[in-house]
Records
---
Amino acid sequence: MAAMIPILERDVDIITFTTHKRFLGLLLSPAQLALLKAIYGMKLTDEDWEYWWQCAQREEYPGEPFTEVDAIFGTRGGKSSRIQAPCMLYEAIMGGFEPNVGESVVIPVVAQDQHASRIVFRLMKDMLAQSAMLKTFVDKALKSTITLTSGIEIRAYPSTSRAIHGYSIPAGAMDEVARFRFEGAADSDADVESAILRGMTNYNRGESRALFIKASTPTSRSGVLYRDYQVSFGKADPHRLVWVAPSLVMNPAEVSPEHVAREMARDPVRARRLYLAEFSEDAGAFLSGEDIERAVQKGVREVDHSSVPPGAKVTFACDPSGSGTDAMTLSGVMLETEPTGRQRVTQLVQRSWTNTKGRAFDQEAVTDGIAETMKRYGVKKLYGDRWGSSLVVQAFEHRGIEYVVPHMTIDGKASYMDRSRGYLEAGVLFRTGNIAILDDPATVAELRSLERRGEKVDAWNDHEDRANALCLAAAMAVANAAHPSFGFVGRPIVMNRDFTQRGPAGEIVDEQGTRHLGDGLFRAKTGELFRDPRGL
């Protein structure tokens, strides 16, 4: 803003703005100082270079400002108070952005919920109020909006994408982005990211640039934070900087080494995420990220019916709920048996229909679409849970599709296969590498959200419609195969279970709680079924 520079008497860089007592007057650790310099392409000292190599793991330093920054710190590392808030305030006051007539220019800071957004907003509000120089740029400060004398607004939002649409955004931030909903849910991290980037379109051209900071302590290997980490960490990306650092590196003055050591001894998995900034699987995660990623057919969105080989058996399943924010989903898979006897499941089709705000999807049109899709693959039987209404069943019957409630045989008796059972049975396929799924980020996110709850499997966020249809189709494809029995796919699976003490049916045969069901069939404590690996 041209009018501001004479008042400040000289150009002010991000370091001066953050540390000088006339402005924010903050104390920075050496690692925080190095990161701020790197974000703005400033010259690095020898000490800064050490942190650049350690935290960015990049050999070359571009010396130019970045447009996207992922600040992945251990907890209490100062990502909000020393990086995100100072950068957003600097861009708002010193960025040189001036609204055109009738234009709304907003710098949004989005947090995972309403409470967290208020905390971040209060931090920036207090920073301005405590600086005699900076508070002169404030026109008014309300509960969730700071309006500057230039007309630019700094706003705090809970995780929402709709409220951000329509604004010009010269800078924006997502705080604790790893705790946002993942893609496939309403107002997911990807939705919010897209809304912010859309508002930055006018600024990211030519020599101008908008600054987008995503800051968080990592959680599971999902979402936009992990995606950015995979794509750009340690890579020569001229636009995005991914900075990963433990708590003790970023803020050694305020983080106790003794406390970190105690937490590492108490719960190593959780502590490595919280203090070492490592992405890791949740202890309760049903499927590992590696098993899910191994199953994804990269770049494959659908397998046409003409590509289904002779002899392959195709199975379709749906999640017919479609109420509220739930989606109605369809998944089709094929089961192939190799000459070695190994069986492999491949996903062919994934469909999803979601109610939009104030408008439900056309049930008749959706049913027509499902019937047409299934008939192309030569299938007239559709598996779905027993909560499907009689109207849904009749609608499919009128189109020549039989809606079947899924069952499997356990101990010689038919047992209803609910969604938890479907997950347990399909889980064997993922862990043994005997399933290939379509490259659908929403389905992958739902699979990652599955967690164990005692003997049951469910999604932590209750959004699992795509995963449910996929796993039910896969489970029923194997259950319907005559050989081998359901639960055993491909080579014998031992999984560290001792089957040498066979005993009578019903007896627990090992310390892991594996029960012999008879006929060489065993059930693990988790509910998974296995054949005796000796083939007896």
---
Amino acid sequence: MRLGINHLENLVDATGQTYFDVFMTDPAEAVHDWPDFVDLPSRYLEAAIMVRQMLGIKIKTEDVLRRRVLSTLHQDGLAHRPETPYTREGAYTGEQGLVLKALNTLYMDRRDPGIAKRMRAMVDGLGRVTMKRSQLYFAIRPLVQSWRTIGYGPALDLAEQLASELMYRTSQYGVDGSYSGHHHSHLETLAGVLSYALVVGKTDLVARVKKCFDFAVSISTRFGFVPEVAERKADIVGCETCTIMDYLDVAILLARNGYPQYWDVVEKTARNHLVESQIRDGSWLGDAPSQGDTDRIVYTGVPSRAVGAFAGWSSPDHYLAFEDELWPSWCKDESQYPFYLGKIRALQNCCAGSGLRAIFQVWKNVACLQGEDLYVNLHIDKKIHGVTVVGYQPYEGRTSVKVGLACRLHVRIPSFVTTSDVSIAVNGSAVRFEVEGPYAVLGRVEAGVSVEMTYPLPVWEEDIVIGNPGYKSFKYRIRWKGDTVVQVAPDSNNAKTGYSDMIGRDVRLHYAGQGPGKLYDRAHLLRSHLAVRASDARLDTSTVDWYDLYHQR
């Protein structure tokens, strides 16, 4: 999360405008594009607030991002793009849900009545939309949240209309849960339908979304490589971090509401492809500018400014899976071709805000109190009121919980061990425990005790294949240590070129061991003796919570 501050502060201009495109030119270019007026500023603002709520650090661009997002809202309640050489003026339906998400997060952060007023106006504006209504499905999740945060009934009414229309009167999702197309859009929509179904008790819709999510799991890897496009008609297959964010959102909603087996999906995805997708080293991008920056393009320091962003099309072992380009219809008109066409796309920075939001989503749900029951869902460090969790994976098979309040304690048993492999001690003395679903459950635990779960941390391997049905496939051998991937070894015979449906020709692929930015450089974790020191986790006092769906405030 802290690494993301670099990107949020250094690739946002003085007006709060972001840079959607990073091209792998020489030098690398960061270029303003049409998503940089409404879409990305909303994501970056949410990320900035979540950084502050999680780390207690206010980033330098938070205020200007806030001003920009609020400035897009017009009298019709909707967010509008301006007329510029590369954008047409108008309120684009597909972007409104992102703004409503940002407004919800703003409101939960500050409880500002002015933000609540804007939320009501946007909900009313969305209710009047008739064009491209299917793109309103992306807004179901923040509509439900608007009902929850400000108690605005029309928001839940509109969510009901949209969810019912989609799930009962369209054939977008098969009876077996399958679907095709842009995965980020599907999972974002399914998260919305699920949140609606949970708050109103529609168990049939919960079951349908679960079936759809099981399909998503079936076409993804165990470590969280989630394809950008489901059943794509091409050889290229990449993982978009925006898709990981929504994948985790659905998994967390299910796990918190009756299906705790999905915490295993959350843990493995978060430990692996989510954090590996964050740009830690931008040296694979060219950095020898021969000219100064312009009002449209940043040429200087792009590799260092990209650090903290997230991959837009990763392979299992590289930041970039394939060398694709934009296409003519992306551009407003032919005058914009020189800015966008004929350049290899390195990053799409919608993923920068989404990756940070995904980290916040996971962090918020590591441990939670439900009445007198304390659930430790993930083996990751976390401190909430009266509770400190320290997870020692991937160094040791050990999770400690210091309990400062009386409770009934549930600690999830990792999926790679059996119940008989697990030991639990209270204040150093072994105790018996019950098993409920994936949890080891202790009876009432008194305040002031220290509980420790220990378990083996096996090293194991699996062979995987990624690819689209009927097109080229790519083989990898994955080595795990517990829940953590420590090595990804591609088959050197994997194809080095393949067909792109976006530009209609073959492009260079990075599935055979060579490519921009190496992922999973973790072989050091296989050493048998590693010094481990618990981190100093910050107390979670955050007011932003997208998962407590049942209590209006």
---
Amino acid sequence: MATTQRRAYGSCLSSLVFLLLAPGCTSGAAGPELRAAGGTTAVSGAAGEAGSTSSAAGAQCTSAEVNRVGFRVLTRLNRAEYDNTARDLLGDTAHVPRNALPADFGDGAFDNNADALTIDPSLGQQLSQVAETLAENALAAGSPGRKLLLICEATDHACAERVLSQFAARAWRRPLRPGELDRLLALYDSARSAAFSFDQGLQTAIQGTLLSPNFLFRPEIDAVADSPEVNAVAPYELASRLSYFLWSSMPDDALLASAASGDLLTGAGLQTQFARMWNHPNAEAFFQRFPGQWLHTLDVSVAKQPAAEVFPAFNATLKDAMEGETLRFMRELVTSDRDFLDLLDADFTYLNAPLAQFYGIAGQFDSEFIRVDLTGNAQRGGILTQASFLTLTSPPERTSPVMRGQWVLARLLDAPPPPPPDNIPNLDSEVSATPQTMRQKMLAHRTNPSCAACHAAMDPVGFGLENFDGIGQWRTTEKGLAIDASGELGLGQGFNGARELQSLLKSDPRVPRAVVKYLLSYALGRQVGDADRCLVDNVTTAFQSADKNRMKALVARVTALPAFLMRRGAP
């Protein structure tokens, strides 16, 4: 784009800040025109349970505590959601947002935690650049976006009005309100009056649409600002909640039509849309992102790269295979009608030639993954024996019983140990006169009183995984010394090796509760804490009994909770 064009665009964007950003802060109020007219809503059925229940901890929970609706701040689209939305809105397959925006790490396990999704000046500039690039690409000759956008052949104001009316409603995921289209047309008119072409005028307005809070955020604002009352979210707001939970992307036409008719607010309508969306290709986002972020297995070397001089077998091909195994393994557990807790001791996995060779598993393999039966395999079976987990919980040059134990406590038992105190000596700086296994070094390290308390919980768990080296390869010795893989999971729960540890974990009631708590955090886009204890306990009981530990049934259950269907203002 030429310099003079950029100046004009800058002028248009200055207008955008004044004309769009300010009204966007209150736009999204749930007015009566967006709510279903009459009928039984999904909310009333979910929230209408009376009486009290017993939590897993044994304490009595009131109906209000079980059906608690927590506060969530205005939610910005994270990088992955923006990227997927650009694909579905504009046909963008170049992954402009993913390549140009910084990763969102969020608070806790997930990158959709609303509290962490703020916008600082640097990100604001990057979002502006992304919007400009997407708008320009969308109108390029022969692009998928051009086919989606240009619903009329003329190049006049009437055609621009049709294009922008349809585009903005899809981008903002709801019908436009009075005055909103006029502000977008003002951007178009400003560009045209500066002698820019029809396409350039549209580009300016499209860029403005993508910079509006109505696009970058998912507004859920009641008519009475910050009302402490609990209210049902409006139909289009619920459509967005559902689509960004299951698809990490915008609602499609069928979901928006269900919102428009009010059918989405009925129990039957919600179930129908869930079933359809679960079987849609876009649901792959949930199948990959929820387990991948919960277990931290999307990128096994995100924090560090295994040292080549210590682990020469590790390379990009093997890294991809490690991540691919866990992705496919977890996808089957999420989507199939089987016990989700089989993630701990499953008798199958997915392997390709590089990973099968690394594991020492014979068979006919090539570059493609195939499902492999592990019945009778004493070394492999379940998430704790997969190289992805074992690599991401190891420092570059060795194993770490601490990191592995901490991962099990935090991810599988929801019992993370406290952070270490300051000035703890580095384990690698503690020199021994004779060769030591990692277990021996850790036991010596724990003689330091400042280290003992936390290590007493983590180390005995991590010791059970010492038969796997820093990239997950099986071993029976270390530095010429025999591996001792005995450990303890809590008082009196001894085990020897990964398979016995997994067996103990599968019968531990903390595991299904951790699954529920992490899923609720992902679904609600906020930290699930102590105030949600009764909600978590109640859903966990249903997950184990009615749902038989099936993930699909649990996800469907979560979408019908008051916590998902309702909202309240700031406390």
---
Amino acid sequence: MHLRFGFRTLIAICVTLAVLLGVVAFVQYRWSKRLLAADLQREREHLDLSASLFASRFNRNIADTVSFLQNDAQTAWTTNAPLPHLPKLVKELYLVDASKDHPRVLRTNNSGTFTAVATPDWMHPEECNATISQQPLAITTPLFQSTVEKTKQGQSLFRISRADHCFIALLDEDFIKSTLIPDLLQQSFGKSSMSDYDFAVVPRRRDAQRIYGPGITPDFRKPFFSVSLRNLPPMPGRPTNAPSPPGRNIQRYLVQTETRGTPGPPNPQNDIWELQVAHRGLPLAAAFRHERKQELLLVVAAEFVLGASIILLVLSAHRMQRAAEQRMQFVAAVSHELRTPVSSISMLSRNQADGLVSGADKVTQYGELIHQQSRRLSEMIEQTLQYAGIHSNLGTQTRTPINIANIITTALSAHNDELTHAQFQVDQNIPNNLPTIQGDANLLRIAIDNLLSNAIKYAANGRWIGIHTEYSTSKRAILVHVADHGPGIEANDRQHLFEPFYRGHAATETNIPGSGIGLSLVHSAAQAHGGSVTVESTPGQGSTFTLRIPA
């Protein structure tokens, strides 16, 4: 099915597609705005989850250290057994005996036993309370004493008292900063977050005192480093002398607590450090907005390219439609033009063969008519072959020095009989000192030949042709002007004049023979030499074609 669309229809299609693309762009903008908020919220939730995991793992390491103090270390001290190796978090372990007026300080040695040492400057041995100090980083946990007594009622009294002894574990801050924190960050946040974010650890509410990482403006904060330090050990189990089931003779404990000295401060269960997370380059929200802008620009660019492609496609379809119509007109014109000389030659030769022509004058007249029609047929075939040759790049292979004056003289000689018969006046102004040009002589001859043929065909009433050649120093080119006193060319036709197969309205209405490829050949020949062809015309006065060839 063959569909034909007018130019207005194609414009309407382009406008409709542009509106649809605009609607799609608006919807994408609204959708991307919501997506930005969702992505930002999801990223913050991811950071919160990862930071909570980091805090939990860090606190577990601290809790394991405290458990070591309240179990392994206390058992080793009460049983006089050597202490096993210290946890990695503990740099030095001290035992403080505050039972006397002057507290005594002991420290573990390489064999795992405690030996007396001088009291460090940072230590306050008189304070045997469960605490965590930050300068230096140390954990203090008291030791406990427990006794079992029998009451008058036969009950067992489990008496627990806090002794005047405590462990003080000096933590290894270098290990925490160089190994523990980086490992936990890697495990909790993952490689992608480590490359996208900066991390810092500071004391809470004291951002200037950095413990780990660079100074940053945090997008997210997470408190951590908290542990429950027991002031009392866990409740004891069933006494060893209790009978086993099924007798079910259960003994009851009476538990009392006794604290020597003044009560200590509450357990340090509040987080003392803070993890800070900052997006690299830009703050988190600004980074997401920047990424959204980039995505929107890519979408807009893609839609612009799509819209431009649609417009180019529609315009190409319109040009192809016009080209197809022009080819159809060309085929029709060539068929008509070929039919006329072929029919004339056939009729004239048939008359001569049948002996209908008698006398020398008649024979000469018939011979002249046959020659004219043959030449017309030859020109049409030659012009068609020239068009095919130029557009298949067959005419741009030869480059030789050319004298443009010789080309013009040769073209005028080829049209001499035709100009004389039509009584044309030819005015020439061709300087002899024109520079030579590098080009294809055959192509230039075709261009000038078609300009002359065009002037003879359309300016028959004016019977005047002017050829003027000059060298333009500003354009660095030779300009060949071919003027006539014909009817001129309308403005609507001038913009399509050099398109293949195009014929003006005046030529179509007056049935001037032609195929519409002559001026297209001139344009193609000029482009093959890096030049151009232009036209200036005034309706009713004539036209001037200017061929520009770089020299």
